[in-house]
Specification:
It contains 18 helices and five strands. The protein is mainly α and 450 residues long. It folds into three domains: 101 residues, no CATH class; 160 residues, no CATH class; 126 residues, no CATH class. Helix 4 runs antiparallel to helix 11, helix 15 packs across helix 17 and helix 16 runs parallel beside helix 18. The model has no long low-confidence stretch (mean pLDDT 86).
Length: 450
């Protein structure tokens, strides 16, 4: 890796000179059809589109800033030609000035795009896990003194709402899990019911009365960050009375209407919400209410994702901005380098090209050589095996292999220590060299450690 890692969203002096000439050329060839400000705006927006296209084509994040700027101009030249009624069909005038595609300073625009895309992928996974947790049925944990008569509730559900499944995340009938609380949004027990135990109790009692005095009782459960509401029949209510059943069913849909407000992330107190419903003489039909609830429920993940991404968005002044970009760059480049190393030919030129490839320039040389070490050792062994063949005596052979171990041309292919190991292992096969090999190896180790 270059010791001078850098990124830039600006063009180099040469790149800026080309950009200015490009803008002037478009401006004049289109007979002032585009203002210079418009041309610059198109190129800025075009940069985001280019970043998306390059990412889809798996272009590595070691893309140079100058190449990115040149590529934006080249890609959008056709747009200016077609929209600006240029005379003839002139080619992009700076094709011969193509900058080096990879190398520092790296394109900050492209790195920023890749980092934001990585964040989107991470947040999407977080949302998926939250969604899995939210939809998994959880037990309704009511106080031990509560008598809700679950068998009666199940029978009443089948009678009043035949064929309809229980609410999302609930394993009991007439129970409601406040979905928004699972996402850590504004809608929570404090906003819905009160901040103290007394306020919560008062809200629940008043809501029970508003839902159906002498018929309905409302329970609340708050365990492991999950908030549940559940309807039950007031003690003494005539279960078989059709009027009681109608009032109970109406109370359930009133409670769902309150939940719709919470699903829409309106942190309204339950008493306030029921008061609004009671003042409105026309209530939505149950099927419409259920459809609106499902729509609101489906929109929550997107709202949560947007909020998380906005909170994690890197600001230009963020001191960790470059560090985070480098992390994204290293991770992506490392994957590509390993894939290329796995298919490399055991040839000196191929290994040398791999280690010095500017596409992998953000990685340390020692890391790249480690990736192709097996192939490099194989090449070195074959090379060392042939070194003594044309030597006249032991002294010349030692001088020749010493030159190999210390050769700078091999430094990018195999470390000097590894080359010495190859020589020790390979030259031991020659009887005439074997007697002096140990002494030579010992001397070389001293030289390499000095």
């Amino acid at each position: 890796m270059s010791s001078h890692w850098s990124m830039s969203s600006e063009l180099s002096p040469v790149g800026q000179e080309r950009r200015d000439a490009f803008v002037n050329t478009v401006y004049h060839l289109t007979d002032d059809f585009f203002s210079m400000e418009t041309i610059h705006e198109v190129l800025i927006k075009g940069g985001q589109r280019l970043a998306d296209r390059l990412a889809k084509n798996k272009v590595l994040p070691t893309l140079s800033a100058d190449y990115f700027g040149w590529r934006v101009e080249k890609d959008w030249w056709g747009f200016f030609v077609s929209r600006g009624n240029m005379r003839g069909d002139p080619p992009y005038p700076y094709s011969s000035n193509e900058p080096t595609m990879y190398g520092a300073p790296y394109s900050e625009i492209y790195l920023s795009y890749l980092e934001s895309r990585e964040q989107e992928a991470k947040v999407a996974e977080e949302i998926r896990q939250l969604e899995t947790n939210r939809t998994a049925p959880a037990p309704l944990r009511l106080p031990s003194s509560t008598e809700r008569r679950p068998e009666l509730m199940a029978k009443l559900w089948d009678e009043l709402l035949p064929g309809r499944p229980y609410e999302h995340g609930c394993d009991e009938p007439f129970a409601l899990r406040i979905t928004s609380s699972d996402w850590g949004l504004e809608v929570n027990i404090g906003s819905c019911f009160g901040t103290t135990e007394e306020e919560v109790t008062d809200s629940i009692n008043r809501a029970s009365f508003m839902l159906g005095a002498e018929v309905v009782v409302l329970f609340i459960s708050d365990a492991d960050g999950k908030i549940f509401l559940a309807l039950g029949l007031e003690e003494g209510a005539e279960v078989e009375n059709s009027a009681v059943k109608r009032r109970f069913k109406a109370a359930w849909f009133d409670l769902l209407a309150v939940n719709l407000q919470w699903l829409r992330l309106r942190p309204v107190n339950i008493v306030t919400a029921l008061d609004e419903i009671n003042k409105n003489l026309i209530r939505p039909r149950p099927n419409k209410l259920m459809a609106e609830m499902e729509k609101a429920r489906m929109e929550i993940p997107g709202k949560v994702e947007s909020r998380i991404l906005q909170a994690r968005q890197l600001k230009p002044e963020d001191p960790q901005r470059a560090v985070k970009f480098l992390r994204v760059q290293l991770a992506s480049t490392r994957v590509a380098a390993r894939a290329a190393a796995a298919n490399i030919d055991a040839e000196f030129s191929a290994i040398k090209s791999f280690v010095t490839d500017p596409r992998f320039g953000c990685l340390a040389t020692r890391e790249l050589t480690k990736m192709v070490e097996d192939a490099a050792v194989s090449v070195a062994e074959e090379h060392v095996r042939l070194l003594p063949v044309d030597c006249r005596d032991i002294e010349e052979a030692e001088e020749t292999v010493t030159g190999f171990v210390l050769s700078g041309s091999w430094d990018d292919v195999l470390s000097r220590g590894k080359r010495l190991e190859v020589c020790e292992r390979t030259l031991g096969q020659y009887p005439l060299l074997r007697r002096s090999l140990d002494a030579w190896v010992a001397q070389m180790r001293i030289r390499l450690s000095g």
